[in-house]
Amino acid sequence: xxxxxxxxxxxxxxxxxxxxxxxxxxxxxxxxxxxxxxxxxxxxxxxxxxxxxxxxxxxxxxxxxxxxxxxxxxxxxxxxxxxxxxxxxxxxxxxxxxxxxxxxxxxxxxxxxxxxxxxxxxxxxxxxxxxxxxxxxxxxxxxxxxxxxxxxxxxxxxxxxxxxxxxxxxxxxxxxxxxxxxxxxxxxxxxxxxxxxxxxxxxxxxxxxxxxxxxxxxxxxxxxxxxxxxxxxxxxxxxxxxxxxxxxxxxxxxxxxxxxxxxxxxxxxxxxxxxxxxxxxxxxxxxxxxxxxxxxxxxxxxxxxxxxxxxxxxxxxxxxxxxxxxxxxxxxxxxxxxxxxxxxxxxxxxxxxxxxxxxxxxxxxxxxxxxxxxxxxxxxxxxxxxxxxxxxxxxxxxxxxxxxxxxxxxxxxxxxxxxxxxxxxxxxxxxxxxxxxxxxxxxxxxxxxxxxxxxxxxxxxxxxxxxxxxxxxxxxxxxxxxxxxxxxxxxxxxxxxxxxxxxxxxxxxxxxxxxxxxxxxxxxxxxxxxxxxxxxxxxxxxxxxxxxxxxxxxxxxxxxxxxxxxxxxxxxxxxxxxxxxxxxxxxxxxxxxxxxxxxxxxxxxxxxxx
Length: 610
Hints:
Layout (H helix, E strand, L loop, with lengths): L6 E7 L4 H11 L7 E7 L4 E7 L2 H4 L2 H6 L4 E7 L14 E4 L4 E10 L2 H10 L9 H15 L2 E2 L12 H6 L4 E2 L7 H18 L2 E8 L3 E6 L8 E5 L12 H9 L8 H13 L12 E4 L3 E5 L2 H6 L3 E5 L4 E8 L2 E8 L7 E2 L1 H6 L5 E2 L2 E2 H15 L6 E4 L5 H11 L7 E3 L12 H11 E3 L1 H4 L3 E6 L6 H12 L4 E6 L21 H4 L2 H8 L3 E4 L2 H10 L5 E5 L7 E2 L6 E5 L2 E5 L4 E5 L8 E2 L7 E2 L1 H4 L5
Parallel strand pairs: 17-32, 20-23, 23-24, 24-25, 26-30, 29-31
Antiparallel strand pairs: 1-4, 1-13, 2-3, 2-4, 5-6, 6-9, 7-8, 9-10, 10-15, 11-13, 11-14, 12-16, 15-16, 18-19, 21-22, 27-30, 28-29
C-alpha cells in the first residue's frame, strides 16, 4: 500500500445517452482517481461539460444528464500526477471556439510538457491550468491551425447549397474563404492529432472528441492501458444508426419473409455485421456499423459496467478514430511509431481492478500467479495466509494455494473510508490505517500468520499493519510482498514519493524488516514477477476478441493461426488451441498472446522506456 492511482478515461460514441453510459464507466474506474471527475458530451452541434472536485457519484445528479444530452461523450476520473489538486486541473479539458469545440481526457504524464508549454506560450497560447493534459489539447489546436484548419465553420452558403446541407457542414472547417465539408475538416483534425502525438513524450492514453468524432490514442510503448469495446444494442438508449439496419433489410427484401422477431433480430445483426469489414484505399483498417455503440476505456471492467463486450486493447502507438461514415459508424486505425510494449507493471500489482483484462492478461490471474511465485521463492512455516485488502487478496490466495497453507480473511477494510478521508496532520495520516483496516481476532489469535501486501513504499503502512495483527493475537507475522522493492520514483504517471522517502532505496532488507516489526520479510524477485505474468493466458487456450462482428472463431491445434483483415494481420499464437474472434474494425496488428507483452519496471530498477 502507498501508491496513488493514476487516472481513468472513458469515451462513448453512438448512444443517445452517451453521458449516462460514461457515468457508469467512470463509477467502475473510480479506483483510478478520487480527486475529481468530469464528463463532456456532444449533441452534434455543441459540447457541454460538467466537472467538479469529488467522487463521481457525488458530482453527477439525474438532472445533469438532461443537460448533458448527446451521442458522443468522454469522461475522466483524476488523481493528480502533474498539476495541483484544483478544479482548474480537473478533466476533461474543453476548448470552445466560435463554432467548434475540442475536449480531451488524459491518463498518464508527459516528460516534455514544460518545453512544449513554453513553446506554445511563445506562440500565443494561454493556459487555465498547470496540467500537462492541457498542453496536449493546445498543441492539437496549434497543429490544426498550422494545417489550414479554422476553429469553426463558415456561415456563407456555397452556390446551390441548401440550408440543411450548410447545417451539416458542422465542426472544424478550413480557413480558405470557402465552405469546407465535415469530412475534409475531420481529415485535417486527424492529421493534427497525429502530428501532435508525435511531439509529445511520456505515457498517455487519450480520449479526444469534437462535435462529431471520437479519437482514442495510446502512447508508443503502451505504458498506460486503453481498450476498445462495443454495445450492439442499448436498452432505453439506442445507438446512432438505430433503424438503419432494418431499413437495409427492407431494401434487400429480407424482411418480407414473415420471419419471427427472433429471426428478424438475427438478420438485423447479420446486416450490421456486413459493415464491419470495409477497408480504405490506404490499407488502414476500417469498420462501420449500423447499430453499434463503441467504447474506449482505461480498463475492460468499465466496458462490462456499461453492458458492453470487450473488443481488444488499443495497440501501442495506435490512434483509433470513430466517426460517422457513409453507411453508419466508421472506425479507422492509424498505426504510428510502435516501440516495444512496456505496460506499467503496477497495473497488475495494484492499479487495475481484479476483474479487468489488460493487454491479454487477466489482472486477477496475474495476482494469483504472483502469489504462487512468491510462495515458491519465500515459503515459510505458518498456520494461515491473509491478504491486505484489496489488491493483496489475489496474491494471498495464490500464495495459499501454492504453499497449501489455509487462506483466511484476517483483515477487513472499512469500505466507507476512501482516499478523500481528511487527516489534518502527518501523525493522523499515519494512524489512518487503524480506521481503514481492522483484524479479525478469531482468524489470527495464537497463529503464525503470512500477510501478503502488494508493495512497501515508505514502510509506514506496513508497520501499522504488523501492529494490528499482533494486537489481534498473531503469534508470528511473516510479511510477504507481491512486487519487488520499490527503489525509484516514477515520472510516467504514478504519484510516488521522492527517492529518499522510499524505504527500499535507503534501507537493506533486514533493516526494513526491523523497521516494520515483522518476524520475516521477503519480496518477489523481478524475474519471478515477470515469469508469473508471462504464464498468464499462455497455456492451452488463448482468447482474443478483436473485432470481427460476425463472431466467427478460428481454431487450430498445435500451430499458429493468422487471420488477415483489411490488409492487417491478427496473429494468435498459443499452445494446443487458439480461439480468435477477430474484429477487423479497429485493426492494425493485434497481439493475442500475453507472452508478447513487455512491462515498464522502472520503479524497481530505474530503467524507464521514456
